[in-house]
Amino acid sequence: MTRLAIVINQERCIGCQTCVNACKMENNVPMGMLWNRVLTVGTDVMDGAVGTYPHLTREYLPMSCQHCENPPCQAVCPVGATYIDDEGRVLIHYDLCIGCRICMAACPYNARVFNWEEPVRDPDFNYGHRNVPVRPKGVTEKCTLCKERAEDGKEPMCVVCCPTRARTYGDLDDPESAVSKLIREKSAYQLLPERGTEPKIHYCK
């Protein structure tokens, strides 16, 4: 068995948005859409701060699909478009998706986007990995943990491009993997544990 995962060290994250743009370019994400976001904890603006000057703090929370063990998006999909593959990734059969967006409503992490219009890209051509499927109008899409890169034996682009090495990628089922060690040693946590979704994306500080 394999359960691919990412551990994100929030102490290392500087909110530079490199992972956001690397993900967008690698996965041919259209204009106006993001699979990966970096939120500023406690604020509703980018690079906000918490507290009163001069006692201010700032903390970043990278956010994308959490690749849950018990994904609510899969449970509610009426056509079986959402599934978990043999590597533990939560993926979408775009040819099955009917655009009902029930999965978006069910996701507690707000991790999916929807193609309301014909996708627009700037520059005006497809970019990124050669095997990434081109998503049409009327389907949902989201992070795939760079499935196509993994098939080439490579790490997700967000992991590769992070300038502070805040992201670590590996197999949760291997107790000696870097992610497993980080989870143990750093007491890593999951988002919204009370929802019982068991995300494979973990955070530590």
Number of separate domains: 1
The number of strands is: 11
How much beta, percentage-wise? 15-25%
At the first level of CATH, the class is Alpha Beta
Distance between the termini: 28 Å
Tell me the major beta sheet: 3 strands, mixed
Label the CATH architecture: 2-Layer Sandwich
Share in helix: 10-25%
Rounded radius of gyration (Å): 17 Å
Return the average pLDDT rounded to an integer. 97
What class would the helix/strand composition place it in? Answer: alpha+beta
Count of helical segments? Answer: 6
CATH topology: Alpha-Beta Plaits
User: What is the string of SSEs from the N terminus onward?
Assistant: EHEEEEHEEHEEHHEHE
> How are the strands of the biggest sheet laid out side by side?
10-1-11
The low-confidence runs, each spanning 5 or more residues with pLDDT under 50, are none
- Rough outline: globular
Quick overview of this protein structure:
Helices cover 18% and strands 19% of the residues. It has helices at residues 18-26, 72-76, 102-106, 147-151, 157-161, 178-185; strands at 4-9, 37-40, 50-52, 55-57, 60-63, 82-84, 90-92, 113-114, 140-141, 167-171, 201-204.
How would you describe what is shown here?
The chain has 205 residues and is an alpha+beta fold. The protein has helices at residues 18-26, 72-76, 102-106, 147-151, 157-161, 178-185, and strands at 4-9, 37-40, 50-52, 55-57, 60-63, 82-84, 90-92, 113-114, 140-141, 167-171, 201-204. The protein has a single domain, classed as 2-Layer Sandwich (Alpha-Beta Plaits), CATH 3.30.70.20. It is built from 6 helices and 11 strands. The strands form 5 sheets. Strands 10-1-11 form a 3-stranded mixed β-sheet.
